[in-house]
Design brief:
Elements lengths: L30 H4 L3 H7 L4 E5 L5 E12 L17 H4 L5 E6 L3 E6 L9 E9 L6 E2 L1 H7 L16 E4 L10 E4 L16 E4 L10
Antiparallel strand pairs: 1-2, 1-7, 2-5, 2-9, 3-4, 5-6, 8-9
The structure holds a DNA duplex.
Length: 209
DNA sequence: CGTTGGATTGGCT
DNA sequence: GCCAATCCAACGC
């Protein structure tokens, strides 16, 4: 079931870039946040902050406005054919990063979810960037904007230079839209499942395809 | 060991 | 709307 982006938004606040960039508690989301069903994590990451601290202390980041869930047994998931060197982080403990290179030139960031041993993750598809952070609408752009590459593959997201932080932003159910994931047409019946989530009407959500 | 194509983007038609 | 860029895992021989 696909919710229509044009439906009346009860939360008009989300129709513009009105999210206060100061929203961020500075405290990383705990591992328990990630150790839950992936669809729940994908929805609840909306409205949280993704923070990247560069070696020189620069603090880049933004509010998560678009995600995709990749579930255990999911034919669209990199882990579908079993564990490999590339997808190993997906099989590891939750709250770590799975960062991979796509099309030879773009990186994609995925917080690992579910208990260790259960391969699943959430693709971060778009952020509403803080002032000073470049636009990040699209999974490759998120990584470019925050200088994320495979040196961060496997990184612990509950501390360190790459982390998600609580904002206290309560994104109401009515402000969340969902639909099929982008670029997974090869995944048979899994392709149509509404595992992509975004903040309804937010201008930083990627166009998708 | 060679081939194929992807959880993408941006520039050109 | 179409396509090149460019790496590497997966799969077939």
């Amino acid at each position: 079931m696909v919710h229509d982006d044009s439906a009346p938004a009860t939360a008009a606040d989300y129709r513009r870039s009105t999210i206060d960039y100061r929203l961020s508690t500075g405290s990383p989301l705990p591992r328990a946040f990630y150790e839950r069903p992936t669809l729940t994590v994908a929805r609840e990451l909306l409205g949280q902050a993704l923070v990247r601290v560069l070696p020189d202390g620069t603090r880049l980041g933004g509010i998560v406005v678009e995600t995709e869930a990749y579930l255990p047994g999911d034919r669209a998931s990199h882990a579908f054919r079993g564990r490999t060197a590339r997808n190993a982080p997906m099989f590891g403990p939750p709250g770590h990063a799975y960062v991979y290179l796509i099309y030879g030139l773009h990186h994609c960031l995925n917080p690992v979810t579910e208990p260790a041993g259960v391969p699943a993750a959430v693709l971060i598809r778009a952020l509403e960037p803080w002032p000073g952070t470049p636009r990040a609408s699209g999974p490759g752009l998120v990584c470019r904007a925050l200088d994320i590459d495979r040196t961060l593959d496997g990184a612990d997201l509950t501390g360190g230079t790459l982390r998600f932080e609580a904002t206290g932003l309560a994104v109401p159910e009515t402000a969340i839209a969902c639909g099929p994931r982008v670029g997974v047409a090869y995944a048979g019946e899994w392709a149509d499942r509404p595992y992509r989530f975004w903040i309804r009407g937010n201008p930083h959500v990627s166009r998708g395809r």
